[in-house]
Amino acid sequence: MSTHINAPMGAIADAVLLPGDPLRAKFIAENFLEDAKCYNEVRGMYGFTGTYKGKKVSVQGTGMGQPSLSIYVQELFQFYDVQKAVRIGTAGAVSEDVPCRSVILANGASTDSSLQTNRFGLNHYAPVPSFELLYTAYNKAKELGIKTTVGPCFSGDRFYDKDDAWKLWKKFGIIGIEMEAAELYTLAAEFNRKALAILTVSNNFVTGEETTAEERQLSFKDMMLLALETVIND
Question: Are 21 and 61 in contact (CB under 8 A)?
């Protein structure tokens, strides 16, 4: 067992889906996995392991923001030998061409997080995903008819942005803003593991379009299906 994950060795698969919301983890376990067993309830951050098309897969909630995700992902990599980690979460689009409910495959993640400053000082690290996972997800999305856009995201530490900082990131080609991918990609590089962020667009900063809280918690099934198909076919 690790500090925040109450699971014995062998209880967690080598491929793990990472929703921020623990209720989304529960939803995936109940609706996509067979014979799912709950291995973690510490701090209400549910973790489940089951099978998808006969292959063992886990899903672990991570909470909101990079510091929270960092704890769970580090423990999954360091103590449970997880090899593939796919974040499934939401993002706010900053492009008119990326509509609500469509899916972003994040091929890079800029950030303002001090986690990077603590690691690299004045140097600037560029967090990127596993090419193999990205390639598999892109081709699976085409096969499944899921509308996807591949592009860079920004992982911010501040949710309520009153300064319209998204306009700067839009100018430099960022297509979505979220809060976790940069740390996931950085930890994957540190531990030599595979990682990818698959994100459903929950709102669009440019057009003002938004989804409901219920949709964000319990729907967005395309990215869940795509993540599962990716980890079992990579």
Answer: yes
